[in-house]
Design a protein that fits this description.
Length: 83
């Protein structure tokens, strides 16, 4: 089951984790083709800080997303004590 709620700032669906966001993307029409939608973190002023699906916001690039994702994953590993 995909767990999501509505972001108070953007009105988009917000996902708490990347697995759910990816699963939701997979359920969209173009999702399976590596297509139009990206998973990105909501970093708007007042945003939820969780994950949304969509076209990249202005100023975002795939390189930036990748950097942030890697930073996220490193932080998660630290939280789990995997160093
Ligand atoms: Zn949001």
């Amino acid at each position: 089951m995909i767990d999501w709620y509505t972001c108070p700032q953007t009105g988009k669906r917000a996902y708490k984790n990347r697995k759910d966001a990816r699963a939701a993307r997979g359920a969209t029409k173009n999702g399976g083709t590596g297509g139009a939608l990206s998973v990105y973190r909501c970093v708007e002023e007042g945003g939820c800080g969780d994950l949304h699906l969509g076209h990249l916001p202005p100023g975002e690039t795939r390189a930036k997303l990748k950097n942030r994702r890697e930073a996220d994953e490193a932080r998660n590993r630290r939280i789990r004590g995997e160093s």
